[in-house]
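Example record

The entry below shows one chain as it appears in the dataset: sequence first, then structure tokens.
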Amino acid sequence: GKQREFWRERLRGAPALLDLPTDYPRPPRQDFRGGRIAMTVAPALTTRVRERARREGATLFMALLAAFKILLYRYSGQEDVVVGTPVAGRNHPELEPLIGCFLNMLAIRTRIDATQNFSMFLHAVKTSTLTSFAHQDVPFEKLLEDHKIERNLAYSPLYQTAFSFEEHPLAQVRMRDLELTFEEIETQTAKVDLALELTVEGEGLSGWFEYRTDLFTPARMERCREHFLTLLASIVDQPEAPIGLLNLLSSDERKGLIELGCGEPRDYPLDSPIHRLFEQQVDRAPERIALIHRNETLTYGRLDEHANQVAALLRARGATDPALIGIMMDPSFALIAGVLGILKAGAGYVYFEKSLPDERVTFILGDAGITMVLVDPNIQPRIAALGVVALDLTVESKAFPTTRVTTPEAATNCAYAVFT
């Protein structure tokens, strides 16, 4: 009826996957093995978050959910976030005396604007939460039927993250002469990629992050816990700051990142383009590790071979100085090989974020005179439809030799980056 129509409209066009950065490649089938990282929120911070929520006419649940969504946005870069949350399913009086589990899951969707402050975003979360709870009678299975969602064994449908919160958890239940107490059991399972579960404990909060162990390491989850706590503190300290600028990093993490970029100063040979300097390093130590990505490594020698194949492909397709080649790829070995290959071919590159709308991409393509774009396989049809050559390096470059392409030293050695 009306509730099913609400969800059809509410979830129309929702993203199929929240692509969080993982420590391991996502396996083709999820095995639901999980782990937990315990966390507590101090009473002082809990009180400040509760007061901030009350000031905005929201509940503590809504404020914590909003903070969790901001964390997911900052991790994924995706501005459309769907989080699952459980409801008891007993909102009708006639269900109260019945025995059984009526639990249902709601998919709470919120669009995120990084320029909003927390107060503005909390109001958006409040609205989406209240409307979702007002239409909670539709079973989750019916949502999947109505949206004709294509099931994927690699991840859960509709949402891959979940949040639950208990304001008044039951510690004991007395039934005549029988007294029951609750004890949490570590099941070593995870129903979704990442879940945050919190309960009120005294004046503070306690709970855990539950995660898939085939995607994340305990060390990453420990950082996730610290990031969430730091984010909560940033929210109450800077409620008017844009949520895209709220601090996630601890002082030690921030210091470490700054020190990482403060290495020993060295002279840079301005007469040599960067891809030639890279080739010199390849010749010195081809077996040394050049790249590390998601627990995989690539040597300088292999990276050079991949880049040479890309350069040969581009030259065969007519890329010449001062041509500009587009790149729309996720972080990967292929992305770095693409950048180096473009420079080796004597061209420059223009980087596009995947989140850019087609209208903006089309404008940049025309403005920069770009006729070729290196792409990931999943977006090749989208870019080809814009009237340019969309090259999937995982297929196109394999047939070309791995020897270096000779280009004039005066070839273009510039990199263009386009994000907005």
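Notes for this example: Confidence is low (pLDDT under 50) at residues 98-102, 409-420. The longest helix spans residues 218-237.
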